[in-house]
Write the structure tokens for this entry.
Amino acid sequence: MTEPATAVLVVDDDPSVRRAIKRLVESVGLQAEMFGSAHEFLQAKRPDVPSCIVLDIRLPGTSGLDFQQELAEANIPVPIIFITAHGDVPMTVRAMKAGAIEFLTKPFRDQDLLDAIQIALERDRARRQRETEIAALRERFESLTPREREVVAMVVRGMLNKQIAAEIGTAENTVKVHRSRAMEKMQAQSLADLVRMVERLQIPARKVS
Amino acid sequence: MIVSASVALTGSYDYSEVARSTLIAIAASYAALDLAGRVTAAKGWVRLAWLSAGATAMGIGIWAMQFKAMLAFRLPVSVEYHWPTVLASLLLAILASAVALYVVSRRKMGPVEALTGSVLMGAGIAGMFYMGIAAMRLPAITRFSPLLVTVSILLAILFSLIALLLAFDLREETRWTLRRRMGSATVMGVAISAMHYTGMAAASFIPASPPELTHAVNISPVGNFGIAIVTFIVLVAAIVTSSVDRQAKAEVQRLNQELERRVVERTLQLEAVNQALRNEIVERERAEKALRESEDRLRLVIDTIPQQIWSGPPDGSLDFCNAQWRSYMGLTQEELQGEGWQRMLHPDDRELVLKAWRESVANGTPYEREARHRGADGRYRWFLARGVPLRDSAGRIARWFGTNTDIEDRKQAEDRLRRVVDTTPAMLHSARPDGYLDFFNKRWLEYVGLSLDDMCGWRWTNAIHPDDVEELVGKWRSSLATGEPFEAEVRVRRADGEYRWMLHRKVPLRDQAGNIVKWYASSVDIEDRRRAEEALQEAQDKLAHVTRTQAMGELAASIAHEVNQPLTAVVTNGDFCLRRLESAAPNLDELRAAIAEIVNDGTRASAVISRIRGLLMKGAPRRAELDINEVMQDVTILLRNELSRNHVSLHTDLAPDLPRVFGDGVQLQQVVINLVMNGIEAMHGLAHRPRELVIKSVRSHNEVLIQVQDSGEGLNPEQREHIFEPFFTTKPQGIGMGLSISRSIVESHGGRLWAESGPNGALFQFTLPAQMGNGVL
């Protein structure tokens, strides 16, 4: 409750609304930052803390929904809470499909916003957690030699050592050496553990293909 | 018988006697000539008396001369005279004289008479001579030389002839008569003497025995003298008598001549007078003929010219009607004259015509009237009757003259025209150049339910709505003054009492000199049109409202956003305040700031709502001076959301210090909204280039120009042509009224709205007249 710094990023072209939200958010002890447009948001240096975006649908230039998409494409997976003065169903569906935490219609109840913010921050915190783990995994994965990665990929796909050896044209024992070294490097306790790791990384399959 | 000359007695002449005898001969001749004139001049018994007296005097004269001559011959013997023979010779002389006088006094003396007369006279004279010889009683025998006797007789005849010719010639009394008579008498006297002495020469006396002296007398010198005296006395008496008579005759003749002269003179005068009279008569006849011809011509003219002519005495009756009229009526002069003509009048006209005619007759004013006259065929034709009085020098009316002109054709044409004028579904009237309205057609009169008399002049103003009269009359007077066509819309009271709007137009008709001779006018009941126009206006307003409402509907999201935005801030701030108030020690500054924001945002929301309310409100357009930039800013606020929703970036470029315009803010907002929304719409499918909308206000001359430019595909020619037509739309949901209404709004503000198409989208722009009043320009 004390330490973990968070940031609520408010993107609304209406300064009045922006200020009101900031005031509300800060009243519950959260940090809020305000942006007048998507462009402004992208220009700014964002704090590397669990964050969420309170995003107005209607924005000058790029709209809120488009911005959501842009962020996703830019791999900025900050949870988004949409607020709109006039929302319709297709808009809501699109937003939610694209991973929005909440879609609030202005004027909203303060608690609804604050709850959504809490959820969003929690989710971002979790995501950040996950991302840290994956980053560690990736780091370990990156330490593998290409041959080891190859072998890991085939192991994950369930191929037997013998098959792998045939595939890559080495001795079965060589495969076994690669495999055990990779397991070691990856700090995998079991084959299942390795498979899970690779899945989380989501890379091998693509890499292999 | 002694036949020997030597023995013959020698005689001598007493020459004084010869002279006397010759003198007597001359005197006798003169007397004869004179008497011949008298005998000729006399008539009846006076002539006989003159003849006898003249013959006697002349005979005595001749005889006396002869006897005297004989006495002048002295013979040496005593000579005595046998007096009866002497007397007989005297008678013979008188007889010869009578013959001569008779002959010469006849009117005509041809050669036979002259010859016969001269032979008789000559014979008489010769006889007398030889009788005188024979009367001699002397002692001698008388012998005669036959030659000389013959000669003497011939001479006597010759001289007689001469004498007769002379006497005949000289019997008339002329100027030279006396002198010529004297001359002639001298010639004759000498001739007689010559004859006598020739005769004497023929005789020779041979002495012989004394003669027997019975009855013989001796002629003494005294006797001789006495003969001469008597003879002269006789001759003188004859001449004097003749002269007196002649003078008396001459006096008579003079008187006669005078009379004659006077008669002639008078006759001449009379003749001259007669001639003059004849000339005059000829002249008069000629003049009369000319007059008659002229009259005939005039009558011909009067009777044949295609005009009915009449005249009459000052009392107003008629006494002359020309043939044209008579034949038209089929009546005679007698039937027409007096008051007979009145029977031709149409019963409907009769009273008016007679009244007017009586007035003219009474006042001496020219008469002029159109009326129907019945013709011989029983049909009536229209005539224009005109009458003028002819006045004498004293100014009194002497006669009335008049004409009747057949105006049936004109009247029919007029009737046709009148029918046209009266039945044309238009209200027509006309006015004189002085502004006096002199004619209203039937439709007009029926429309107002008034008579022509009620409307003529300026009385028509009674039919005009009291509020409109002053302006109308003013306009009409001004048109009259300037000659400019007149046009006005005023309310006219219809027959049913309802005032209805009418449009009046008057145009002047000018003559060749450009002077206005008449005004012609038409009036149109525009009440229905006006109502329709009002209804149309109302419908248009409604439609504008509907389209506004529709636009608002389309903008609902944006509008909601626009309202929700401040509301969101309000609610959020409110929530914040509540939260803070729940804490132990609320930060009042914080709260104050939040509440201030709440108030601001509340005001903001209210402003938006009132804008929308204005646009949605249904009401009469209200115009006022306004700043078009404000209008446009209002619109951009309303449309901000719409623009962003459609990813359209808006650039506004509003000129500062624009002149104000006079207009209806709501309507002008509607126009701008419409243009902006169209622009947004036009860029809807635009992917490959930025969607930009530029809104500009520009000051242009004495107008304000507003431009809305999009970056869409622009307009194709067909669109550009039809885009302002009602119900033309390129949008699937559009009803196509937006631009049509926008244009009518702009045009009702005195501006123009048009579209252009450039490479970078469509440009819509409109102008509004700038207000000059406040010195902005």
